[in-house]
């Protein structure tokens, strides 16, 4: 079984590389079409969520939606815990507008999936609300951050290379995701591991390799706003994906102490994120450390309750 686990690790690395190819294409497309930075980051968030989406589709096909639900919930925690925390530690300080109206709609929306699961199932109705809520929050966020850039009238842009890059990357993501689900099913059968816990802890890190890549590259190129908007866009896409999957196949959730610990930890982390966004109109390095610690405590408590 050790070779199978090693192969899964390699596939996660490859899926990150494939998604990075998609990111490169999207960034080039945004530059040629002169899209503003925040919208570019939100679009990147959609494409960097390709691993979660494709793994979720394959998980539904294998009738194990708990892996996808755990992966997507864990993905949001990873985005605003270790990945954002790392970005803040590297950047030292990232400015925000400091407005409750900018961050609260996002964090409240991100709390909905776990809240809907508290009764043991994320139903089709819950899925419909998550999809509608995503569209509302996305539009509101764009309106709150938009600015107008000059457009060159009458000039034609050749974006064929960028589109081809995106297609190649998406094919790579899909192939890797299909293989990951297949081999993970073998591991689950062999060790009788809870599918939700595997998705929450293991998959959430592997499928967020693209977001980590964007964070590091944005830091190196001093494009901090792109990193933050990409994380927000990716987290919102997680909620949208849960909604879409629930609409196709209601997601049954096991309610136990692990789930309650996850619910509390998720609420505390998103609450801290809102407060840090508001305080001093900037995220600080110290706040990045706190976000990482909160994530670690949440995952540890979930794992401890699962073992016992």
Set down the secondary structure blueprint.
Layout: H1 2-33, H2 37-48, H3 50-61, H4 65-91, E1 93-95, H5 100-116, E2 121-122, H6 124-145, H7 160-191, H8 195-206, H9 209-220, H10 224-248, E3 251-252, H11 257-278, E4 282-284, H12 285-307
Antiparallel strand pairs: 1-4, 2-3
Describe what you observe in this structure.
- This protein is mainly alpha-helical and 308 residues long.
- Helices cover 81% and strands 3% of the residues.
- Helix 4 packs parallel to helix 8.
Q: Give the termini distance in whole angstroms.
A: 25 Å
Label the overall shape. Answer: globular
Mean pLDDT: 81
Strand percentage lies at: under 5%
Which segments are poorly predicted (pLDDT under 50) over 5 or more consecutive residues?
147-154
Rg is 19 Å
Instruction: Please give the count of helices.
Output: 12
* Percent helix: over 70%
Total strands: 4
Strand order of the largest sheet: 1-4
The helix/strand order is: HHHHEHEHHHHHEHEH
Largest beta sheet, briefly?
Answer: 2 strands, antiparallel
Class inferred from helices and paired strands: mainly alpha
